[in-house]
Amino acid sequence: MLAVGEVARRAGVAVSALHFYEQQGLIAAERTAGNQRRYRRHVLRRISLILVAKRIGIPLSEVAEVLAGLPENRMPSKRDWDRISRRWHAHLAARRREIEQLEREITGCIGCGCLSLRRRRVLNPADVLARQGPGPNLLPAAGPDDPPAAAPAPADRTAGEGPRVAR
After folding, report:
1. DSSP string spanning 25-37?
2. How far apart are CA 56 and CA 6, in angstroms?
3. Is the pLDDT of residue 113 over 70?
4. Using an 8 Å Cβ cutoff, are 127 and 157 in contact?
5. What percent of the chain has pLDDT over 70?
6. pLDDT tens digits, 125-148
7. Are 85 and 66 within 8 A, CB to CB?
8. 18 CB neighbour count, 10 Å cutoff
9. Quick one: which of 14, 50, 137, 158 is 20 to 30 A from 24 by CA?
């Protein structure tokens, strides 16, 4: 069993991150008689998976779904990891398709050379997207782990402002 500080040091994260991951159900700790957290060594693998997923932009909610299939009270077996790997592969493939679609749209919009955006999907004639709220209304919705958007801008705009391009 490892103390919280040792896990934080070995994983390269703050103690507060461990507490957050525990609150989110991504890792589990046991308590000593003195109410101190102790982690099993295999939690380091879970944290590594969390950090890699975070680095490539996978929401913690997706990580939680994947980790839910791993045992919390013992080291995962090869069979456990194989099962999780197959499930994770589906998540990554879907994410890859979303990113490739976004890349095609952005490249087409910015890289076409016309600079007018007249032929592109992000054009927002008459500011019709303002009725849908702030942010990138034509792009995939943010995940539950993404930071909240800023306060909504007023939907009505004055006539002289011109069309708004979706961000």
Report:
1. TSS--EE-TT--E
2. 26
3. no
4. yes
5. 69
6. 677 777 888 776 666 554 544 444
7. no
8. 22
9. 137
User: Which tokens go with 48?
Assistant: 């590594």
> Residue 81 has what pLDDT?
80
Tokens representing 156? Answer: 């009505």
The percent helix, strand, coil of the chain (3-state, each to 5) is: 50, 5, 45
Structure tokens given for 11: 């994983």
Query: DSSP letter string over 100-138?
Result: HHHHHHHHHHHHTS--S-TTSTT--GGGGGGGG-SS-TT
β-pair type (2-3, 30-31): unpaired
Do residues 130 and 155 lie in contact, with contact meaning Cβ atoms separated by under 8 Å? yes
- Res. 34: pLDDT tops 90: yes
Mean of the pLDDT values across residues 8-29? 94
Q: Is 115 left (phi over 0), alpha (psi -120 to 50) or beta?
A: left
Please give the C-alpha separations between residue 3 and each of 9, 20, 51, 76, 140, in angstroms, as whole numbers: 10, 16, 20, 20, 40
Which of the four pLDDT bands, split at 50, 70 and 90, describes residue 68?
confident
Sole residue written with tokens 């009270």 = 73
Cα–Cα distance, 157 to 46 (Å, whole number)? 48
